Amino acid sequence: MDDDVPRVVLRPVAEGDLDLLEQLTNDPVAAGEHQWFGWHDPGYLRRRWQETGMLTAETGMLVPTLGGRVLGLVSWHRSRTGPTSYCWNVGLVLAPEARGHGYGTEAQRLLAEYLFAHTQLNRVEATTEVDNRAEQRSLEKAGFTREGVLRGYGFRDGEWRDTVVYSVVRSDLAKS
Question: Which segments constitute the N-acetyltransferase domain (predicted)?
Answer without folding.
Answer: 8-165
